[in-house]
Amino acid sequence: MQFVRNIFVAGICSSLFSNIALATATPPEPNTLKPPAAWVGILVMALFFGVVITISIMSSKRGHQD
User: Fold this and answer.
1) What value, to the nearest 5°, has the Cα angle with vertex 60 and ends 59 and 62?
2) Mind listing the pLDDT tens digit for each residue in 21-58?
3) DSSP string spanning 1-26?
4) Hey, is 39 helix, strand or coil?
5) CA distance 4 to 17
6) 33-51 in b/e burial notation, b at 16+ Cβ within 10 A?
7) Cα-Cα-Cα-Cα dihedral of 26, 31, 32, 35, to 10°?
8) What global pTM score does this model have?
């Protein structure tokens, strides 16, 4: 009985893992999208820097009792 159960479990597991093995056997498609240019990253960094500096310079609007 133990042998039959082991064969049954092995059959189920092999059918589940065979799809994974077939999927990993085929190479992935190459990425045809070009990465963004370097100036885009610099522009985003400058924008974040400007936002942080602007928020830091803003007055705190505290009351006269602080």
Assistant:
1) 125
2) 666 666 777 778 888 889 999 999 999 999 999 988 98
3) -HHHHHHHHHHHHHHHHHHHHHHHHS
4) helix
5) 20
6) eeeeeeeeeeeeeeeeeee
7) -170
8) 0.44
